[in-house]
Design goal:
Elements: E1 3-7, H1 16-29, E2 34-38, H2 44-48, H3 60-64, E3 75-76, E4 82-85, H4 94-99, H5 107-112, E5 121-125, H6 132-140, E6 143-149, H7 158-171, E7 178-184, H8 191-203, H9 219-223, H10 231-234, H11 239-257
Parallel strand pairs: 1-5, 1-6, 2-4, 2-5, 6-7
Antiparallel strand pairs: 3-4
Helix pairs in contact: 1-11
Bound molecules: adenosine-5'-diphosphate and magnesium ion.
Residues 12-18, 44, 128, 184-185, 215, 217-218, 221-222, 225, 240 line the site of adenosine-5'-diphosphate (ADP).
Length: 258
């Protein structure tokens, strides 16, 4: 039975999409069957796999708007075992359309649940807001990964995110356990990076898991999307790719320990 993991932080630029693309690629390379669901209208995960978003006629929006069956929106990627449900700008309309529908926060969950058993992992790449799409990702996910950029103000907005997660739990009766906090864009050479790491440890309660793997700031990770490839395909040996492979192994170990 697949596990649905939503990658959430309403802050833009903290590495959500980079994590969704490269962690799912790494897991697929390690033999897992993985689906990535892009629910950001900016569609960076979609273009990160070289999918031309202008030419798409079946996207996650087609599913949400009831125009397509979810099975018909699953696209292959250049990595065997790895599939994507792409997004495009049409999804930005969903924010408005969804609110007028009954049960609008469970639409994504209801769409994905029937295909859950077809994959080992399903990752949802959320947009940088706490709007309806992110709410749908919180409800659909069995658990949440929160990427946090190692910089000043890294934890700004984190209280709002945790509050939203609590509301989803209490009002919608949908638990959102944290799978792990992931430190991204880390520069270990600076005192700042180390300080932020300590700050994150102090902020979360000790029962929240912080991934042992830390994602370094690595130029190859930033270059890869412009080539329409996950970094693991673009440059498998670079520090960024190696970190995401380690993270994939850490995730698999967590499953084995259960
Ligand atoms: P988000 O999805 O949270 O908005 P992205 O994953 O798109 O964030 O990352 C924001 C920008 O930072 C992108 O240009 C991306 O290529 C770059 N980036 C992300 N992670 C790293 C990293 N570890 N090292 C270098 N650049 C990174
Ligand atoms: Mg993104």
């Amino acid at each position: 039975m697949g596990e649905i993991i939503s990658i959430i932080n309403q802050k833009g630029g903290c590495g959500k999409t980079t994590t969704a693309v490269n962690l799912s690629s790494a897991l697929a390379i390690l033999g897992k069957k993985v689906l990535i669901v892009d629910i950001d209208p900016q569609a960076n995960a979609t273009t990160g796999f070289g999918v031309n978003k202008a030419e798409l006629n079946s996207t996650i929006y087609s599913v949400i708007s009831g125009e397509a069956k979810i099975e018909d929106t699953i696209h292959e990627t250049m990595i065997p075992n790895l599939y994507i449900i792409p997004s495009n700008l049409a999804l930005s309309g969903a924010e408005v359309e969804l609110t007028s529908q009954i049960g609008y926060h469970t639409i994504l969950k209801e769409a994905i649940d029937p295909i859950k058993r077809d994959f080992d992992y399903i990752f949802i790449d959320a947009p940088p807001s706490l709007g309806i799409l992110t709410l749908n990702a919180l409800v659909a996910g069995d658990s949440i990964i929160i990427p946090i950029q190692a910089e000043y103000y890294a934890l700004e907005g984190m209280a709002d995110l945790l509050k939203t997660m609590k509301l989803v739990e209490s009002r919608l009766k949908s638990p959102c356990p944290i799978k792990g906090i992931l430190l991204t864009l880390y520069d270990g050479r600076t005192r700042l990076g180390r300080e932020v790491y300590q700050e994150i440890k102090n902020f979360f309660s000790p029962q929240e898991y912080i991934f042992k793997t830390i994602i370094p700031r690595n130029i190859r990770l930033a270059e890869a999307p412009s080539h329409g490839k996950p970094c693991i395909i673009y440059d498998k040996d670079c520090k960024g790719s190696q970190a995401y492979l380690k993270l994939a192994e850490e995730l698999i170990e967590m499953e084995d320990e259960k």
